[in-house]
Specification:
There is one protein chain. About 60% of the residues lie in helices and about 5% in strands. It has seven helices and two strands, in the order E-E-H-H-H-H-H-H-H. Helix 1 packs across helix 3 and helix 5 packs antiparallel against helix 6. The N terminus is likely disordered.
């Protein structure tokens, strides 16, 4: 498993009661979304096979916060794509992560956002879901295109 480095600029912004975690809108931070999402991912039998002792909780949560940056930002940019391909390369090539796993992740992400409807405006939820779906390309081939 590669060592995951924090992406430049990720931890630079905002403080809305969530410490040093990036705030994606006035309504919510990445940490809040990840806190709700993490346990769903960890407890999913399809996805839990990819958690192991080499991947600590902080690393996983950071990786999920990066995904929230994509979701609540402007979607998948080329540098995001390269980062996601690098982070998931071993999982895709050696451990068999596929679009099926991505779909399971996406279902948990969607459910998490639905649970936050009382905090997040529907347009932000809609945009975040569309942006998250833009990351599918990473799991279709595992290669930079």
């Amino acid at each position: 498993m590669p060592v995951v480095q924090k992406r430049a600029g990720f931890d630079q912004v905002a403080n809305a009661g969530d410490g040093d975690h990036k705030v994606f809108s006035k309504e919510i931070s990445g940490k809040k979304v990840v806190d709700k999402l993490y346990h769903k991912l960890y407890n999913d039998p399809l996805l839990s096979a990819f958690w192991n002792d080499d991947l600590d909780v902080e690393t996983v949560q950071h990786m999920q916060e990066v995904m929230m940056e994509v979701a609540f930002g402007s979607g998948l940019q080329e540098d995001d794509k390269a980062y996601l391909v690098d982070v998931h390369a071993d999982l895709i090539k050696e451990r068999g992560v596929t679009e099926r796993h991505f779909d399971a992740y996406l279902a948990h992400f969607d459910k998490t956002l639905e649970e936050l409807q009382d905090i997040l405006p529907i347009d932000k939820i809609k945009d975040a879901k569309a942006n998250m779906r833009s990351t599918r390309v990473v799991f279709q081939s595992g290669k930079k295109k």
